[in-house]
Every structure is written in structure tokens, then in C-alpha cells.
Design brief:
Elements: H1 7-30, H2 41-57, H3 64-78, H4 81-98, H5 106-123, H6 132-149, H7 153-174, H8 176-181, H9 186-202, E1 236-244, H10 250-260, E2 261-268, E3 272-279, H11 282-289, E4 293-302, H12 303-315, E5 326-334, H13 337-345, E6 350-353, H14 362-371, E7 374-380, H15 387-391, E8 400-403, H16 409-417, H17 425-435, E9 440-446, E10 451-453, E11 456-458, E12 463-467, E13 470-475, H18 478-491, E14 496-501, H19 507-520, E15 525-530, E16 538-542
Parallel strand pairs: 5-6, 5-7, 7-8, 14-15
Antiparallel strand pairs: 1-3, 1-4, 2-3, 9-12, 9-16, 10-11, 12-13, 14-16
Helix pairs in contact: 1-2, 1-3, 1-9, 2-3, 2-4, 3-4, 4-5, 5-6, 5-7, 6-7, 6-9, 7-9, 10-11, 16-17, 18-19
Amino acid sequence: MRQTINGAEFRRLLINAAASIEIHKQALNELNVFPVPDGDTGTNMSMTINAAAADLRRLEDPTLEKASSAAASAMLRGARGNSGVILSLLFRGISKQLKGNDECDGILWANALQEGVDAAYKAVMKPAEGTILTVARLAAARALQAAEENNYFEYVHEAAIAEAKEALANTVNQNPVLKKAGVVDAGGKGWLVALEAMLLALRGEDVEVPEDLAGAEVKEQASFSDFADEDINFTYCTEFIISRENDKDPENLRAFLDSLGDSLVLVDDDEIIKVHVHTNDPGKALHEAIEYGSFVTVKIENMRLQHTAKVVSEQEMEPKIAEPVKELGVVSVCAGDGISDVFRNLGVDGLISGGQTMNPSTQDILEVVNSVPAKTVYVLPNNKNIIMAAQQVSALTPKNVVVVPSKTVPQGVTAMLSFNPEGTAEENLAAMTEALDTVETIQITHAARNSDFDGYLIHEGDYLAMYGGTLFGTSRDIKALLKSLAEKVRDSGKEYITIYYGADISEKHAQKAADLFADICPEADVNLLRGGQPVYYYLISAE
């Protein structure tokens, strides 16, 4: 039984945890009870912890402090979604406790787990039972008890895992929604997966991610500073697709291209020839290729320039932060070019691409915040699963970052309408936050999975409507769903209705939806805008 671990061993423990969460991420996603397409728990936890694993792979024989600090920093910046942020905070607390130590025994590890729990609870405004917080809290409490019994790291970690298993099993009884669905909490399960994988690493068992699951976030990231551009034998990465228009043998093209460069990949089928080759003369490659048919796509990139840019990027230790030329600025998270235009027209300084199913990381938000030339920057998350990631930004920048807790795009738009560039930071926060409750958000999407939720028997593929954050209903007929929603809006006395139609809705069908609302709500002012958003067929603002 292991008494202590050092920095290199901590590194191995965390990389193992990252691999295991990657393997189990879809199973964790499937534990999500609510059937709306979402930035699922497993995906968010995997992307968060694998940001740390990528950095740790580049560290050779790190000290315990260095390994834990690097992991915490990478996870904080890479945190996505609430589950990812909480995971990053757990490791942030662990890192804080391990600071200044070369080895970690049972007592120190128990205190580190508790420090992580404290950090996570401090960041969550209204902690709920039956979540990852519960599992982590009870596991840490048992670890503290175990450390008094035996000061071996492995003994304490085993005790934490045993308690985490019991706590996870009980989450189904602590949350009515989980109980009805008969599943445990996804985030809590993810924390248990991580703890168990760490124990395997402690015992010399490495978790390997299968080839078909390995994503970019779990592969070792090369450091481009480790080689010079003279190591690049051929300058141009040349890729193209040709539409097959004759009977010429593609093997002759393969032989010709092979004489021009290296890294050749040529795939041919009945309709196209796809080519990738590194060469110093892409013109010759293209001239020869056109003899086989017409070009469908062509892409040529200068790898020496890419290498130089990558090295500069890696060597820039300090982030680029725009000098303030004004007091106040605003950045907003959104998806869809139409909605982006709305925010730009309202005066937003920077846009962060993201939303449902694609939660931006803390680092993504930080970079846009830093680009705004203002002393105080307001952040509009426009999604409840992005708020926590946005709240971590203030610790990473000298700018004053203020998160306005908008949970939907219509809330974000309404908040911007209340923004006064000439007002004080406090006045704007109060006005923008107050404005959030003046708008009702209606969202129409599809059910991502079968579910029995809140009295509704939901089938995968159903149209699904949310009204003000609660499930309104489902239907196979989107027109019937829109009609019921319009009637509810009318009965609630709303006066201003804005309909944003998504990327999967034609203008013709969107206009019919707007006409339906206008007919049913004759006293309301109805506006139709192309949002272009993914996932949601319609986002509707009612005020």
C-alpha cells in the first residue's frame, strides 16, 4: 500500500482520470435526465480535465506543487459548463493545499480533498443536494476520518472512493427528478470515475483511450518550439478534392505526387479523388491533378508561417490585454449570425461563439474579455450552463469583470437595451440584472432522448417547448405547439413579441409562425428576425 505520492505520480493519477472520463463521457451524458440537447455533463467534464492532461503530458518529472498547479490552471481556463467548472474548482482547492509540499501522504490528501470541496461550495450560489458537490463533500469527510486511522495515501483514497460510491447511489433519493428517472447524478458519477481511475494509476494500471474514442483534447499536444522550421522539408500543405470525370488511373497521380513531396494521402472512389500532400510546388500538383477532373475544393497552407505563428503563440507568456480607452464594455455569448448581428447593433464589443451543446470555456470568454478596450467588462452568458465558467474569468484578468446572469438570448438582448455606456458600473449592473425578469423566454427545440419528465412522456425527436425555464409541452406537430404557445402569451398579456428563427427553419415557415402569433395576439407587436441559431428552431422573447 502506497504511503505517499510525488509530483510525477500526481501527474500520472490525473492523466489516468482524464482518460477514464473520456472513455465514460457518453455514459455520463446519458445520465442527463432532461431531454433538451445540452452541453452534456460528460463532454464538459472530459474537455475540462483533458485540458489539464494535455499540459501535464508536457511536464517531465514535475514537483508536486508544479503538477497540481499546472493542472488547476489548465482546468480553470478550460472549464466548460457547470460540471466542468465545479471539477476545476475541486482541483483548484487540491492544488492550494498541496502548495509547498514535495510529497502527499494520507493526511495531506484528505485535507486537499476537503479544500477542493470548500472551493467548489464557495463558488455555487445555491448548492443542491444529490449532485457532484454532495458526492465530493461526503467523500472528503470520510477521507478526513480515514487519515486519522491510517496516514497512507492509498488507504485514505480508497476510503474516499467507498464513500463516494455510497453517496452517488443515494443521489437518486435526494433529487426527485433523478428518482423518477431512476438514475444517479451525472456529475457525481464523473467525480467517482476520476477517483477510481486515480487509484488504478496508483497501482500501476494505466487507462488507455481506444483509438476510435481518442479526440484532440486527449492526445498529447506537441510543443512546436521543440523543432526549428528548417526541419520542415516541404513548405506547402496542399489538399484538394477532384470530381472524377474520366477513366485516368489515380495511381499515376499518386506516383507523380509522391515524387513532388511527402506525407501523401490519396483516396479515390467512384466519384471523387481526395489528396493531401506536402510539397514545395503546389502549382505542379494542381496542374497534374486537373487532368483527372474538376476541382471541388483546394486548400494550400504555408507550414513555415504556421510554425512561426505557433512558436510565437507558445512563447507568449502574458495574454494580450487591450488598453482601456473607455470605462465600460460588454461581451456576449451567442450562436447564429442573425443573433450576433442583433448584439452588435445593440453595442456589444465582443462576441463569444457558443450556447447550448457548445459551452465556451473560461479561456474562450477570457480572450474576448481581454480584447475589449474597457476598464469594466460585462459578460452576458445567455445560458445557465455558462454562467459559472464566466464567473471564473475575473480571477484571470486585471480588468473588472461583471457577469450579468442572463440565462437566455432574449434575456441578454433585454439586458443590453438597459445598458447605459455613460452610467456607472454599479448602475448598469443593477439595471441590466433587473431587466432579466421583464422578459419571458420561449424556446422550441427537439427531444434528444426518450424521457418521462415532469408529467410528460417524451419521445426522441419530438418538438419540445420551454416557457420561462419550465417544460411547456411536446408534440410531433410544431404548428400545434406554436399555437398553444401563442395562446399562453396572449393570456399572459404580453405586448412585445420577437421571434428569432433558427438555422433549420426557412423564412417561409418562420413567417407563418409570426403570422400565427400576430393572429392570436392581436394586441401585441410581433417582430420576426432571422437568428440563424443551431439547436433551437425558434427563440421567442415575450415582454
